[in-house]
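Researcher: Go.
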Amino acid sequence: MTTSQHTSEPPGRVAVVTGASGGIGRVVALRLAADGVAVVVGYAGNQEAAEKVVAEIAAAGGRAVAAAADVADETAVSGVFDTAEQEFGGVDVVVNAAGRMALAPIAELDLAVLDALHRTNVRGTFVVAQQAARRVRAGGSIVAFSTSVLGLAFPGYGAYAASKGAVEALPMILARELRGRDVTVNAVAPGPTATDLFLDGKDEETIGRLAAQPPLERLGTPQDIAEVVAFLASPAGHWVNGQVVRANGGIV
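Model: Structure:
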């Protein structure tokens, strides 16, 4: 990981990244730090993993601090933004990578599981977006996470896809509500990506079939997705606003 600051990245920028203790969120935090952005590493429960991300950023010459919050808890999320302002002086980039997945046919899904999934994916996205809308400085960016499953329509993904459909309803509305603030709002919708969350419970045949579907003939990697997020969060990507970017290698 390079610690050199890109010329397009103004000094002193600060990011809040939720779900940053693992998976795509972790790689996003590292990628933003490589651009010289100070990072608040948001996590729900795994403090040890979050502190490892902070240590990795610090070892590469970056600045980071960990902060715990259930993204659906508005008081806790407000505290994460407080931490960003106290430690680094403000917030310029918000990436909500926290998410929950539960797979089952619609006819069989436990509705308590549905409620928990929607609490994190829908309410959590809304809560983080609400705090971001109140606090992000001019020139900043807000990035949410959807999924390309909305287009793929895999059986068993009904609850998860429905929650991410709600996420996709927000970027353009919030972008328009922030008119005059010079703040962009977008969502990234990854396709099948080689994370522990995605690979868990899938056999080699299933993984191989999914990897063969995109014209690029492979699964996405967390780094692929982090590069898209870093672009949207940077001055170079500031003309992209209110969009859902399907980062999936052409699978849909």
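Model: The domain at 14-245 is CATH 3.40.50.720 (Rossmann fold).
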